[in-house]
TrEMBL record:
InterPro entries: ArsR-like_HTH, AsnC-type_HTH_dom, Dimeric_a/b-barrel, Tscrpt_reg_AsnC-like, Tscrpt_reg_AsnC/Lrp_C, WH-like_DNA-bd_sf, WH_DNA-bd_sf. GO terms for molecular function: sequence-specific DNA binding. Pfam families: AsnC_trans_reg (PF01037), HTH_24 (PF13412). Residues 30-91 form the HTH asnC-type domain. GO terms for biological process: response to amino acid. It comes from the Bacteria. The lineage of its organism: Bacteria, Bacillati, Actinomycetota, Actinomycetes, Propionibacteriales. One of its GO terms (cellular component) is cytosol. This is Leucine-responsive regulatory protein. PANTHER family: LEUCINE-RESPONSIVE REGULATORY PROTEIN, TRANSCRIPTIONAL REGULATOR AZLB. Keywords: DNA-binding, Transcription, Transcription regulation.
Amino acid sequence: MPPRCDNFLWERHSVVVGRCDAVMGKKLQLDEIDREIVLQLRKDGRMSNADLARHVSLSAPACLRRVKHLEDSGVIRGYRAVIDPAAFGHSLEVFVWVDLDASNREAMLAFEDRVSQMEEVVECHRVFGRPDFFMRVLVRDPADYEDFLTNKLIGVPLVLRVTSTPSLKKIKTEDHGWSEGALG
């Protein structure tokens, strides 16, 4: 069995960029240099501070202060290695929609708790309307997905309906939905 990876990301090294809507109750203002720092680190999260400083035309100490401020304020939430799931034998990505038989808070929380413990689920969202949840599941092959579906997901109390669609080909992936335009 391959080692468990909690978060599969899809490009090279990445920077996990947080929302900067509210930091300590006020809106955080990012200037052009801050935006460029974030964009450069998104391209290469292992870039040295000296290289980053050259890219953004700052001294190394000034650049490091800005990066530290972006980290402390929650704009940059962390750095991760980006893993190719196929290297661990996980080459089938399945999109899954789940309807629950109840729409009360306890049912939602119980479902979220169970799903958060399923290593095959690499992403899960509670959504408005129906279905109740959207998930991205990563498994080895169709037999592995069938095992996940029948022995784990359908066994969760209050699951009413599951709809699944396998991905044929990934066309585009942005780190956590952020594009250069989102930082504008």
